[in-house]
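Summary for the steering committee. The consortium agreed at its last meeting that each partner would contribute one worked example illustrating the joint modelling workflow. Our contribution is presented below. We chose a case with several input lines so that the handling of multiple components could be demonstrated. No manual editing was applied between input and output; the record is shown as generated.
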Amino acid sequence: MLHDLFPPGIQHALDLAGIFVFATAGALLAVRKNFDVFGIAVLAEVTALGGGLFRDLVIGAVPPAAFGELSFFVTPLIAAAIVFFLHPEVQRINRAINVFDAAGLALFCVTGTTKAYEYGLGLTASAALGLATAVGGGVLRDVLVNEVPSLLRDREMYAVPATVGAAMVALSIAFDALNALTTAAAIVTTFVLRLLAMQFHWRAPLAWNRRSAVSEEP
Amino acid sequence: MLHDLFPPGIQHALDLAGIFVFATAGALLAVRKNFDVFGIAVLAEVTALGGGLFRDLVIGAVPPAAFGELSFFVTPLIAAAIVFFLHPEVQRINRAINVFDAAGLALFCVTGTTKAYEYGLGLTASAALGLATAVGGGVLRDVLVNEVPSLLRDREMYAVPATVGAAMVALSIAFDALNALTTAAAIVTTFVLRLLAMQFHWRAPLAWNRRSAVSEEP
Amino acid sequence: MLHDLFPPGIQHALDLAGIFVFATAGALLAVRKNFDVFGIAVLAEVTALGGGLFRDLVIGAVPPAAFGELSFFVTPLIAAAIVFFLHPEVQRINRAINVFDAAGLALFCVTGTTKAYEYGLGLTASAALGLATAVGGGVLRDVLVNEVPSLLRDREMYAVPATVGAAMVALSIAFDALNALTTAAAIVTTFVLRLLAMQFHWRAPLAWNRRSAVSEEP
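What follows is the complete predicted structure of the assembly.
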């Protein structure tokens, strides 16, 4: 089976690590927004599990892993509790968090694509859902804090690495070459692309002939 | 069966009463926001049925009660029609509406937890979905009117009573003691906690060492 | 079968045309908001497929057509690419786009109602889901760009024609008279009503005795 590419224990530990990092980022945003303790917990849960929840609803994986797997649900609460007490310290290691976030992004776009394909979706749809798994939680988080999702507007190169990773998995499946090696290659490529984008401030293009200085229409 | 704790007729009447009150609150907000007649109806529907719809999608109860049970769908339209014509009068009894809203909150967190457990979810996930049933409609309503959900930021003690009620139901199930008495106890506890929170302005804590005076980051 | 009212090829071509027009409108909004190329593609997809995706999740059509039908997923990407390069030209034919948008609205409220009924929902719920199919993508689009959905507030007569069309289909089913003729009548009625509403600036009413000049509460 596709999801047995890595030993189950390692796979599960990687998933939990990705969930923990995403949840930490969500909880930190909640603290900056002066949310109360309940809002911190909700934003941690939504950021960490929202993308996978959307994927599972679309592919009909009921109940979704976010609710069917207790450790997935509890991990964001632990992250929220740590941020609740130690947010100044956590904030200080923001650079490290960004690196772990890139790792979570890489992992989720790959496992999301694989899971969607296992549930019978086509290659393009599977890659799209892998991408949604990786970035969906962040979009929901931004909607809840009443901001335009940074993914859509910031021109930060966040979605492109995930798209590349999801496409690599889909291509591996198409050529019947999905194995631990190609999976690891997709994860590493996404991770490195994202780190390079952060380091060199790569930006996604605006619409053709559109200057970024143009202000929004009234 | 768990959902036969009360005679079906009473259960259904309670559900409709809760839906009616939530819908009224949603419709009043739509009037304050100057929404048109269609917006009033949509906000009534979303506020009243959004939480249960989310729960039903997650547990795979298809079609969700919001669309499968005609009386659930029609009740918010009646509430919207009343508010459309009589909103000044309805606004005036705002205090009474808050009390009924507390009753709806208490009822929905308990029935939501029970229904999720019946569909095979674990105790923690069931309690989380019971909470989502009770507060989810309000979150969707606030997203639609383009505000940060008051649940996450206002520090008003709204989610905590519902969390307590959902946890009481989950514990009753865990100890094989779910019956009409323990269910009623969970409903009453949630209701009274919410009334006390309103009366004495109990507030949920912000993050540790975070003054509420700190403004949002730019 | 109900969905065989028209030859499958024509039905599919109509669906793709509606998706293309909705996607174009979404992509143009993304350009006006200075979204990057990824944001343009996402807003095109969400606007075109969001309503049908919601309907399919509610009726349990898994995987939803948005992900199960490759041409549905690819069409918004083509619209996004065209808008990315040619947005000034596309913007200039805005009036024509509004006419096509009215056609998409008419088509989607009718096919959405029919599909929901085929999946076993009641007549009222089917009509509601037909309406949601037609207007849901626009609501999600507005939430993502952080605006109150224009559907709820602008008093523009957008939802009313779709409601009429969905109701006509539901009544046709109720009287066992759903055929190519009554379906076409519902589509044409919705389309013409929407064009008349645009031409004569018909507006939906605010709450009774509520002046539109009343400002929002603080």
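The interface with chain B takes residues 30-40, 42-43, 53, 57, 62-64, 67-68, 70, 73-74, 83-88, 143-146 of chain A (CB under 8 Å). Residues 212-218 of chain A have pLDDT under 50 and may be disordered.
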